[in-house]
Amino acid sequence: MLSKFDLWWLCYSPIMLVDSYIVPECVARPGSFGGLMTLYEANYIKLIQLIPELSDRRGFAISPIESDCDLYLTIEHQTKYTCELRLTYLFEAEGDYVADPDLVAKVYYDARMAEVCSWIDFHRHALLQSLSRQFRREIDQRWGRNIMLSKWLDYLLERGHFFPVRGAVSL
């Protein structure tokens, strides 16, 4: 039987941090502002799992694994309280490379939140084009981008992507 200390350690160990441990301060309804803030918190936790010691990072790093494409990380801007980063895959197409998805996220260290700043505006698939036309309000667009980040981070972590601290390369 686990003691209270053992349970506490399992819940708060950096390896075990997942968005299911977030207790929202409000009722988080999909599409609501409170729910969006909870999603930002969950994305922060997942990003920190993927990129530990993010506040100390500079430059460029690659997460190469056998079970997925290489994942590229670029720290675009770093301040004491925030970081702007880019995550992407690179695909070869007609002798050139295409970044897809090409995601830029802003991380707020003090608030422990991460939000998608930009993602591709053009969708290749008809269903995604239809959905992007249907949800035009700013909050709907933010929900869509950040749900996509949440799902992608889940996928990346499940596949085993990870950016060790020594993997960062200065530009």
Topology of this structure?
Elements: H1 4-12, H2 33-50, E1 60-63, E2 71-78, E3 82-93, E4 96-108, E5 113-118, H3 126-134, H4 138-159
Antiparallel strand pairs: 1-2, 2-3, 3-4, 4-5
Helix pairs in contact: 2-4
Descriptive account of the structure:
It is a single chain. A 5-stranded antiparallel β-sheet has the order 1-2-3-4-5. The radius of gyration is 17 Å and the shape is globular. By secondary structure, it is an alpha+beta fold. It has one domain. A hairpin with a 7-residue loop joins strand 1 (about 60-65) and strand 2 (about 70-80). Helix 2 (about 35-50) runs parallel beside helix 4. Residues about 5-15 have low confidence and may be disordered. The longest helix is centred in the last third of the chain and has 22 residues, at about 140-160. The protein has helices at about 5-10, 35-50, 125-135, 140-160, and strands at about 60-65, 70-80, 80-95, 95-110, 115-120.
Taken as a percent bin, the fraction of beta residues is 25-35%
Helix content bin: 25-40%
Class by alpha and beta content: alpha+beta
Adjacency order of strands in the biggest sheet: 1-2-3-4-5
Report the radius of gyration as a whole number of Å: 17 Å
Alpha-carbon distance between the two ends: 50 Å
Mean pLDDT: 80
Number of discrete domains: 1
Biggest β-sheet, characterized?
5 strands, antiparallel
Order of helices and strands: HHEEEEEHH
Please give the oligomerization state of what you see.
Answer: single chain
Give the count of helical stretches. 4
Number of strands: 5
Low-confidence stretches: 4-16
Shape category: globular
